[in-house]
Write a structure and sequence with these properties.
Length: 335
């Protein structure tokens, strides 16, 4: 029996993993009650924070202690302040806010608790599926994750020299918040963009894109990507970002064929997703993401580079370039 104190300490990696849900729950509570926003607005004591957030004193103190323990808050002589990361990412209304992600944690934790059952059966818990257009999860999620796609969209502008190519026509299928359209239209004042997504998501996207001052060149088409026509030879650039992981290989091939048909000769399809290496290594987030797809989708997964190459070739693309990024996501450029 191993009695090495260092191995059995609270800092032990397995111990930290076993209690990782503590951190998730604290972040969920902090964002749900807008603690970081109240602190940003000048509430610094437990009393003032509790009053502003509508919390009990006991509850506020427990939450503040936990957030200090996570390094998201600091405390000095009874006065609390946001860390640099919390100030940038956990305050409502800031450009790089990830508050929405924090507020979806509680529902996610309930679903993840069913993972032992899902890995046994190979199917998601059917009572909690979110693959429906009217599920409020999508409206919360798309704006929550928009900041994570902004650097990828800027890389697309650079890689395709989009800022200097004149009146580009852009198609974004499953575009969510519209972040790719917002960035591309901001870089190229002659470009136009069309987004295909569910009606409730498109409603969110129109408001989001309007904040960038480019709404007059952005339009939406409401519909399911599997059933909605993308048109023929209408677009110079097509975007398919963080959508392929929801679908089966067969479905992705069919969608890529539609996207190729929608592109003009010489047009480029941009795919972004959490993609595994061919030997099933890669970003830790991408590797763990496969389990999330088991829980959330009927046939989705974290797919390999080889899978995307095969699907794109089957769809008629001749040149496929796979580009790692500084984020967990990978970009693919196919022509």
């Amino acid at each position: 029996m191993d009695t090495d104190g260092a191995r059995l300490s609270p800092e032990n990696a397995i111990f930290q993993l076993a209690n990782g849900y503590w951190a998730s729950a604290l972040l969920a509570a902090g964002t749900t009650h807008s603690l970081f926003t109240h602190i940003d607005r000048g509430m610094q004591t437990v009393e003032s924070i509790a009053e502003a957030a509508g919390l009990s004193m006991r509850g506020a103190q427990a939450l503040l202690d936990g957030l200090v323990g996570l390094g998201l808050l600091t405390v000095n002589d009874g006065r609390y302040a946001n860390s640099a990361a919390a100030s940038q990412h956990l305050v409502d209304g800031k450009p790089m806010s990830l508050v929405g992600i924090g507020r979806t944690i509680a529902d996610g934790m309930r679903l993840w608790s069913k993972l032992p059952e899902a890995v046994k059966t190979g199917i998601p818990p059917t009572t909690e599926r979110v693959e429906t257009p009217d599920h409020p999860f999508w409206e919360e999620l798309v704006t929550a994750i928009a900041p994570t796609s902004a650097p990828l969209a800027r890389r697309v502008v650079e890689r395709l020299d989009a800022a200097r190519r004149g009146p580009l026509a852009i198609l974004d299928v499953g575009g969510g918040s519209g972040i790719y359209s917002a960035v591309l239209l901001g870089a190229n004042r002659e470009a136009t963009a069309t987004q295909v997504d569910w009606a409730n998501v498109n409603r969110v996207a129109r408001a989001f894109v309007a904040r960038f001052g480019v709404a007059d060149r952005f339009k939406t088409i409401d519909g399911n990507l599997h059933e909605t026509s993308f048109g023929e030879a209408r677009f110079d650039i097509a975007i398919f970002s963080h959508v392929a992981h929801h679908d089966s290989p067969e479905s992705n091939v069919a969608t890529f064929r539609k996207l190729r048909a929608a592109l003009r000769p010489g047009g480029t399809l941009v795919v972004s997703d959490l993609i595994l290496n061919d030997d099933r290594t890669g970003s830790p987030l991408a590797l763990m993401f496969h389990a999330k797809m088991l829980l959330y989708t009927a046939s989705g997964g974290a797919w390999r580079r080889a899978d995307y190459r095969s699907w794109l070739e089957q769809a008629g693309f001749k040149d496929v370039v796979i580009e790692p990024t500084q984020t967990p996501a990978t970009l693919i450029f196919a022509t």
